[in-house]
């Protein structure tokens, strides 16, 4: 006898989490591509990282929307990691500096970035936790004797 099957949330809740998570990833990506086009492209290391962040954000937004439920853990988890990593980079750059660059909290879209990245982290972590792979407990009844043995 195996344990109870874990309940999955309703389809409307999952759809809402997917849409909000994808929108927040796309928001982060848009902010980065916009700032990149407004001058951050000329900053060593930071410019290319902003562009990579934008591409990854848009790609993960699409993946969160399109992934089958059985694989949703992976893009949601990757999206959560992108959001928390982006937020950590922003905090570092505005406190101690990052790769020789120091950002100001008065910079364009600074606080919007903080809000979008923090919310994206929360929503995508929830989505990833809901769809995390669960190992099934193997019980004695699950075992079968190999063919040709007398048991």
Number of domains: 1
Main sheet? none
Number of beta-strand segments: 0
Count of runs of 4 or more consecutive helical residues: 4
Radius of gyration: 21 Å
Q: Pick out the low-confidence regions.
A: none
How confident overall, as mean pLDDT?
Answer: 88
| Beta-strand residue percentage | under 5%
- Structural class assignment: mainly alpha
Q: Give the terminus-to-terminus CA distance.
A: 21 Å
- Name the shape in a single word: elongated
Task: Give the SSE order as H and E letters.
Answer: HHHH
Helix content: 55-70%
Quick gist of this model?
This protein is mainly α and about 150 residues long.
List the helices and strands and how they pair.
Blueprint: H1 11-37, H2 46-66, H3 73-95, H4 110-130
Notes on the protein architecture:
By secondary structure, the protein is mainly α. The protein has one domain (11-132). It is built from four helices and no strands. The radius of gyration is 21 Å and the shape is elongated. The model has no long low-confidence stretch (mean pLDDT 88).
Notable characteristics:
single chain; mainly alpha; 151 residues; elongated
């Amino acid at each position: 006898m195996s344990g109870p099957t874990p309940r999955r949330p309703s389809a409307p809740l999952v759809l809402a989490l997917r849409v909000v998570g994808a929108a927040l990833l796309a928001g982060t990506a848009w902010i980065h591509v916009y700032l990149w086009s407004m001058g951050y492209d000329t900053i060593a290391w930071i410019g290319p990282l902003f562009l990579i962040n934008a591409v990854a954000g848009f790609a993960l937004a699409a993946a969160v929307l399109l992934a089958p439920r059985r694989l949703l853990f992976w893009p949601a988890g990757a999206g959560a990691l992108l959001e928390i990593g982006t937020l950590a980079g922003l905090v570092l750059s505005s406190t101690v500096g990052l790769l020789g660059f120091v950002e100001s909290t008065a910079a364009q879209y600074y606080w919007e970035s903080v809000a979008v990245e923090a919310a994206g982290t929360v929503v995508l972590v929830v989505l990833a936790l809901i769809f995390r792979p669960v190992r099934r407990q193997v019980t004695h009844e699950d075992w079968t004797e190999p063919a040709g043995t007398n048991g």
